[in-house]
């Protein structure tokens, strides 16, 4: 592990897009060896992201595998990422949290609650990640997302109460007509 960290930093800092991808993937696999070393390194790398792609690679290839393997341990450890001053750290954190319900549907409500603090984020890159996380959560069931949006988006609440309803064919649940508009507004 100690030999890889300088290599990962060099790849991330000096070899552009391809180097960043090459550095991110093994970090997710190596987390269980020394999590106390890897998690701070991931946050440090997040702070130096240049594009959404950099943050997304860290979220999907490095942070997501960590959270997915031990959600109870890592969800609370990632919460500070959601309030960090750096937009790339916030984006990476919300993407990793948003992907968790795909593997562990029982965490859908908790992951949605964690994303709530970012609903009004000023940064467009973070807003898009929040919308993506909410759409991913909806894949596992519309009801928790509908309830979350109705409770969390007061300006959208009247449209959530509209009597017109459509069916979600994948889950065969009723979806208020305004919910897709509320999700689209987060994009």
Topology, element by element:
Layout: H1 4-14, H2 16-30, H3 35-47, H4 52-69, H5 71-78, H6 87-103, H7 108-115, H8 124-139, H9 142-152, H10 157-160, E1 165-168, E2 173-176, H11 178-186
Antiparallel strand pairs: 1-2
Helix pairs in contact: 1-2, 2-4, 3-4, 4-5, 4-6, 6-7, 6-8, 7-8, 8-9, 8-11
Q: What structural category characterises the helix and strand content? A: mainly alpha
Q: Give the amount of beta strand, in percent.
A: under 5%
Strand and helix order: HHHHHHHHHHEEH
Rg, rounded, reads: 18 Å
In this structure, how is the largest beta sheet organized? 2 strands, antiparallel
- By DSSP (H or I, 4+ residues per run), the number of helices equals 11
**What's the N-to-C terminus distance?**
39 Å
Give the low-confidence spans. Answer: 156-169
Oligomer: single chain
Shape: globular
What does this structure look like?
This protein has 187 residues and is mostly helical. The chain has a domain at 4-105 and 122-131. It has eleven helices and two strands, in the order ααααααααααββα. The chain has helices at 4-14, 16-30, 35-47, 52-69, 71-78, 87-103, 108-115, 124-139, 142-152, 157-160, 178-186, and strands at residues 165-168, 173-176. It has a two-stranded antiparallel sheet. α4 packs antiparallel against α5 (71-78), α6 (87-103) runs antiparallel to α7 and α8 runs antiparallel to α9. The radius of gyration is 18 Å and the shape is globular. 39% of the residues are buried. Mean pLDDT is 81; it is low at 156-169.
